[in-house]
């Protein structure tokens, strides 16, 4: 209310003397009407944004109005400022008054339509559907209101020449350049009493007026802190020497418009007599209004004639050889269909009736066109693939300088600032937004960084914060997420398949996403590549070349996409779809062959992401339990036993809550957990679980089922670890005989049982029988699965162990060298297999009295196990004991005593393992 009274009082004091009381009330009524229109318009803009956030379907009907209303409000505010300055004539007020009243009426009607169409949080699905249907029924009424407001807007624009308003930074003083009086076509349109064939004297005079100096139509002041883009400015200048059209392409918020603004000022500095024009290319309405503004400012003959086609008028004037040199900027030209395809819903409303706006971009030798766009394909087309410039993020140094220029010293931290700009990928919009939040909320750079890093939801909220930025178009979104949301909506409209890919990528790990997770089974190669190309054109992803492209998406883009999916109500759907895709592609129990190892490495990060989602449906929860088992088995193959155990326990918990205790899937989780605990050295618990799995599987699947036989193999290994050789031989022979009967002697799983029996013979001291069986397993595995497969290498390790026990140390040493070479080339990282082979190598070296070499090797193993398993793990302590024995045998008794004391403090080792003896491996994985 204070603002209303302030405006009215200023207006009345500034107004010229009025002859009658009636006229005085009319003038005050016009001022009140303007304020009322601003109030209604602001409410409408806010509610239109709510519609877009709640439903994309409703947003489509109201899109034109959402574009037009902010433009009208800006125009009304300019009229109010001119009235405050006393430069609006009474005649102008009298003519504009009914136009403003009509705008208010249309706004009130629109407010009622929105109330009936806008879903509320408390609405159920039926009510939301009802409101969506009402929105469809109201489409014709919405179009009528839009058309009426468009007409009113054109009339208000021609009601006078509104000069640039200069408001002092530290006061409310307003100054204007001299303004031209009202264009009487408004009065002519409203009263229909004059004939257009007989123009009024001042109308004819206005047509003859031409600007006495060059026009500089850039809606932004120059940035005195413009940083790090001088190289791009130079490239633009070089491109214009060869091309008439140059395009700046890149991700939303990367700084394209800021570069264009700076280039406009550079262009004016170097060519003072040239004209500079700025047009918004966001949609047909703003594009046409930009051309209308050019026509008005340049006083092109016919600029104020409502029947003249302004697009064609301006294009022809710019191309006229008598027109001075010019630069035209088309900012945010992101909609390719607007420039090159039919768009009946909006383009049909343009005066020219054209279905393509690209034809109105002028081409001549004395003019230049600078385009900014997020869609590289559109930029390439407009610039004929010669003038395209891809804008990259700022350098780390310039990003840091940009942040520092906007933050006070008291909030500054150099180290945290460097981390922050790196975290924000040197994206100018994100940096500017961060700086605004830091300054406005009195937080430090360190505190802001902590909020970003600690919680993804905080990060989404901070990136969604709308903070005003005078360096950006007031119609543009000033938050990172909302800026990219416009890009996502554009992609959804142009390429639904690309939007699907974007949604799918955002719910995966979004880094190094392999092709097998992206391409649909029945999708054509051209369709898949085209969809990828759309996302690359908008700079949302990068993709490698070749037959199997790997896609990368920045984390900020992924979070913005997730936020977009949340607003659309589809995030849970895409999370479920990601789970289904990864679960289908990740090999499960009995499918994890060595040839799949590379694929599983690539899939593992994406599996970890989808396993972190919260699923509520039974199908999704069971799919999650299945993927947990699949990834746990892969963890086992890499020696990550604790991770495997955690996943198995989670899987078992899900399945026991949803399935019967003897269900095959429940028993699968029981079995895998038992196998995992076996590797962790928890033999008692492992034995209990594996026995449960055997009993349950024999009952539900039968004694000859492959899963039942897997359980028999695992329980046999458990008995071997517990030194219960008699029980191990009973279950081992049973598994061997049944596998031979069901699978045959040349099946990989039969060889697993045969290998277990070879280990049993070693431990019983039956070396000849063990040698014969181990060599047979090695030859068969080499033939069936290859010499580099881990299970083949495992058999070679066991053969080396046998040679060691038989006293053939040279042969054992040579075999272990072959084992280590294979493991280092085939399996990356400090895997369990590599640790075992190195331990065996040390044992052989110690037996050869090569204690220094044995000490060095065991030192490496100890560091690996402390890193991967922890200092108190049984295998870590076993390695300490082995190293102590080597040190003692090598005459370093003091060091040996210290190690043994440490082992005593941390616990006892596995008594079934000899101090420096060799370890055998059963080879249960990668068959």
From TrEMBL:
SUPFAM superfamilies: P-loop containing nucleoside triphosphate hydrolases, TPR-like. Residues 33-156 form the NACHT-NTPase and P-loop NTPases N-terminal domain. InterPro entries: NLR-like, P-loop_NTPase, SesA, TPR-like_helical_dom_sf, TPR_rpt. One of its GO terms (molecular function) is ADP binding. Pfam families: SesA, TPR_10, TPR_12. This is NACHT-NTPase and P-loop NTPases N-terminal domain-containing protein. It comes from Endocarpon pusillum (strain Z07020 / HMAS-L-300199) (Lichen-forming fungus).
């Amino acid at each position: 209310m204070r603002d209303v009274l302030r405006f009215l009082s200023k207006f009345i004091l500034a107004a010229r003397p009025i002859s009658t009381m009636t006229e005085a009330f009319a003038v005050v009524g016009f001022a009140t009407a303007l304020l009322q229109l601003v109030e209604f318009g602001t409410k409408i803009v806010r509610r239109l944004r709510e519609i877009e956030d709640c439903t994309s379907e409703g947003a489509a009907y109201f899109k034109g109005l959402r574009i037009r209303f902010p433009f009208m409000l800006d125009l009304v505010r300019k009229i109010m400022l001119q009235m405050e300055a006393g430069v609006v004539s009474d005649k102008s007020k009298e003519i504009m008054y009914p136009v403003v009243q009509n705008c208010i009426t249309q706004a009130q009607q629109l407010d009622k339509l929105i109330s009936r169409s806008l879903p509320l949080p408390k609405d159920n699905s039926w009510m939301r559907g009802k409101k969506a249907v009402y929105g469809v029924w109201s489409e014709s009424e919405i179009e009528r209101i839009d058309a009426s407001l468009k007409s009113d807007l054109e009339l208000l624009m021609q009601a006078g020449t509104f000069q640039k308003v200069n408001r002092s930074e530290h006061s409310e003083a307003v100054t204007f350049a001299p303004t031209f009086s009202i264009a009487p076509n408004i009065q002519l349109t409203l009263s229909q009493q004059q004939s257009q064939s007989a123009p009024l004297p001042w109308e004819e005079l206005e047509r003859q007026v031409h600007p006495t100096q060059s026009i500089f139509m850039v809606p932004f002041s120059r940035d005195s802190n413009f940083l790090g883009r001088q190289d791009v400015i130079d490239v633009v200048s070089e491109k214009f020497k060869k091309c008439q059209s140059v395009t700046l392409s890149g991700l939303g918020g990367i700084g394209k418009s800021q570069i264009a603004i700076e280039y406009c000022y550079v262009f004016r500095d170097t060519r003072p007599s040239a004209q500079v024009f700025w047009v918004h290319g966001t949609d047909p309405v703003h594009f046409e209004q930009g051309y209308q503004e050019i026509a008005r400012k340049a006083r092109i003959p016919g600029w104020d004639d409502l029947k003249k086609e302004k697009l064609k008028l301006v294009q022809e004037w710019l191309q006229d050889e008598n027109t001075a040199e010019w630069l035209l900027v088309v900012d945010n030209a992101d909609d390719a269909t607007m420039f090159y395809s039919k768009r009946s819903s909006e383009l049909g409303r343009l005066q020219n009736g054209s279905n393509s706006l690209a034809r109105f971009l002028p081409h001549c030798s004395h003019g230049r066109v600078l385009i900014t766009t997020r869609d590289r394909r559109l930029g390439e087309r407009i610039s004929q693939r010669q003038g395209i410039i891809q804008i990259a993020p700022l350098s780390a140094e310039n990003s840091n300088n940009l942040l520092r220029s906007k933050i006070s010293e008291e909030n500054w931290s150099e180290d945290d600032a460097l981390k922050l700009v790196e975290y924000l990928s040197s994206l100018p919009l994100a940096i500017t937004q961060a700086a605004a939040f830091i300054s406005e909320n009195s937080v430090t750079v360190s505190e802001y960084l902590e909020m970003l890093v600690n919680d993804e939801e905080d990060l989404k909220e901070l990136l969604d914060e709308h903070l005003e930025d005078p360096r950006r178009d007031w119609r543009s979104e000033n938050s990172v997420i909302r800026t990219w949301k416009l890009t996502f909506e554009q992609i959804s409209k142009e390429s639904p398949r690309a939007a699907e890919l974007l949604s799918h990528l955002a719910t995966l790990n979004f880094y190094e996403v392999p092709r097998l997770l992206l391409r649909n089974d029945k999708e054509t190669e051209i369709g898949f590549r085209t969809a990828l190309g759309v996302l690359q054109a908008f700079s949302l992803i990068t993709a490698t070349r070749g037959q199997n492209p790997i896609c990368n998406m920045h984390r900020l883009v992924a979070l913005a996409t997730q936020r977009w999916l949340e607003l659309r109500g589809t995030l849970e759907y895409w999370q479920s779809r990601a789970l289904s895709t990864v679960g289908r592609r990740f090999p499960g129990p009995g499918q994890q062959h060595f040839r799949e190892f590379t694929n599983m490495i690539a899939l593992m990060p994406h599996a970890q992401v989808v396993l972190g989602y919260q699923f509520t449906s039974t199908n999704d929860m069971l799919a999650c339990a299945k993927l947990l088992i699949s990834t746990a088995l892969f963890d086992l193959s890499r020696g990550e036993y604790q991770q495997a155990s955690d996943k198995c326990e989670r899987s078992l918990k899900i399945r026991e809550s949803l399935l019967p205790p003897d269900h095959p899937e429940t028993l699968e989780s029981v079995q895998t957990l038992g196998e995992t605990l076996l590797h962790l050295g928890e033999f008692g618990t492992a034995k209990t679980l594996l026995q449960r799995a055997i009993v349950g599987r024999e009952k539900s699947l039968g004694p000859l089922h492959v899963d039942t036989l897997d359980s028999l193999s695992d329980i046999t290994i458990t008995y071997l670890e517990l030194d219960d050789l008699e029980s191990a031989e009973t279950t081992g022979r049973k598994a061997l005989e049944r596998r031979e009967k069901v699978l045959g002697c040349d099946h990989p799983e039969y060889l697993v049982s045969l290998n277990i029996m070879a280990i049993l013979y070693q431990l019983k001291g039956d070396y000849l029988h063990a040698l014969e069986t181990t060599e047979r397993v090695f030859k068969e595995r080499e033939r069936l699965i290859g010499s580099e497969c881990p299970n083949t290498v495992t058999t070679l390790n066991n053969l080396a162990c046998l040679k060691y026990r038989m006293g053939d140390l040279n042969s054992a040493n040579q075999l272990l060298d072959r084992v280590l070479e294979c493991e280092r080339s085939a399996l990356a990282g400090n895997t369990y297999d590599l640790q075992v082979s190195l331990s065996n190598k040390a044992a052989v070296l110690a037996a050869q009295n090569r204690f220094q070499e044995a000490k060095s090797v065991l030192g490496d193993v100890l560091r690996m196990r402390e890193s991967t398993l922890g200092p108190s793990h049984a295998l870590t302590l076993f390695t300490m004991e082995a190293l102590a024995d080597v040190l003692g045998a090598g005459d370093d008794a003091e060091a040996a005593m210290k190690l043994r004391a440490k082992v005593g403090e941390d616990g006892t080792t596995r008594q079934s393992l000899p101090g420096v003896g060799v370890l055998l491996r059963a080879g249960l994985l990668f068959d």
